Amino acid sequence: MRNFKKHIPGLLITLITAGLSVLFILVLLWSRMLPAKYFLLGSAAIVLVATAAGLLVRSTAYKVQFTFGTIISVLMTFVMVLGSVYLMKTMVTLNNISSVTTVHTPVGIFVRADDPAVSVDDAKDYDFGILSALDTDNTIKTVEELTAKYAAPVKTNAYDGIAQMVDGLLNGETDAMILNLAYLDLFEEMDGYKDVESKIRQLEVITIENVVEVKKPGIFGNKDNDKNDPKEEKEEPHVFTVYIGGSDSRGALSMQARNDVNIIATVNTETKQVLLVTTPRDYFVPLSISNKVPDKLTHAGIYGPEVPVETLEMLYGTEIDYYFRINFAGVETLVDALGGITVNNKYEFMAMKKYYIPAGEVTLNGAEALAYARDRKNSGGDEARGKRQMEIISAAIDKAISPDILLRYTSILDSVEDCIDMSIPYDEIADLVRMQLKDNQDWDIVMYSVSGVGAVRQPWSMSTNAYVMLPDYETVDQAAEMMRRVRSGEIVSVSEEE
Description:
The chain folds into three domains: 2-96; 102-211, 3-Layer(aba) Sandwich (D-Maltodextrin-Binding Protein, domain 2); 217-497, 3-Layer(aba) Sandwich (Aminopeptidase). It has 13 helices and 19 strands. It has helices at residues 2-5, 8-31, 36-56, 63-97, 136-150, 162-170, 306-316, 328-337, 366-374, 381-400, 409-416, 426-439, 473-488; strands at residues 101-112, 127-131, 155-159, 176-180, 200-212, 239-247, 259-268, 273-278, 284-286, 294-296, 322-327, 341-345, 349-351, 355-357, 360-364, 420-422, 444-449, 452-457, 466-471. The longest helix is centred in the N-terminal third of the chain and has 35 residues, at 63-97. The termini are far apart. Residues 215-236 have low confidence and may be disordered.
């Protein structure tokens, strides 16, 4: 009995270590991020070390061996628990931000500022102004909700544009109006309507939910392989294209808002080259839903995350496989979570009239990086801003793959979960990670900006003239050709972006 007691501590340590080893191996298998060779070697190493530790702690009678075996078991436990937490956190976060997107559209019920109504119940007998051709789906759903609430039909007057509808409300043609809150920002661009929000009052916001599911084929071949068998690896990825969009909203990313950043990333994983093409926010082009009538590209985001993607596909004659979106709050949070980023600024300027950005290599915190990306009036206009936005993406990638980022890894994941969404499935991300671990090659990032000339036109989403940028289609054609060449496996030189 006395001899058996000497084996009890070692038996407990061995069981704990063995259990954690099995759990960690299962998590590695579930993550699908390790190449088969690394997975099998890693699993074998874990089993061997766990076995060696078990042999060393088999009896407390051998104090030196027992102590050494216990130390090995404790270190293994720490590494495996930490690794499991990191992997599980990664999988949960990536699945959350890459799942089917539910877009929440806040639609406001507005009256004149001096109207006596204090709630939407007081507006039961009002005539409501609605838009006849813009945002019709959300308008119809809002009218249906009001009809159900009042248990009676809602009286409506239809208007062709937001200016006409506001005029109708202010001059008494209607008593109230139904307006997607994303349209409020458009009044800032319209002469004579910049003070509209001081003349109207919001009674209530009705949130309309729309499910957006982007169904695109995967970028990897051989999809029928068993995902749980590490020996059955899929073919390596070749080419895929991602729309990188930046929402000008500081609220939840699921809220529709103008798209302030519009970048197409064409990725060739064989040549290890990424082409980033940025398109100015004021580019005057037909939206995918505007029936060939031109609008500002930035307005596309008002109508859901798929509209900027479809619009840019039309402009460049290409297919975009996935989208990746981040809002203003997300940029600040992500950069701060990364510990700041370093960019090479071409000339000094005062970003957003608030942050001094010197020329040369400069490290930016979250607020400074956001100002650096957004400023256009003090720093070269839309084209220069587009290039700086691509610089920030490149700098964030460099920082995210640096070794010291492991110390802040979980906090970074926490910070981005609520301010990023994308349509890239987890399986595709895992395959990309596995491929990169297998190849371990550097990537060449090339940046290109299309250009245009300023003009005054009436966009499809607006009722009055506003500043727009007429596209220089030579640069559009050049960008489309560069995308084609990257997809075909050619190397695009840096000189072509200048």
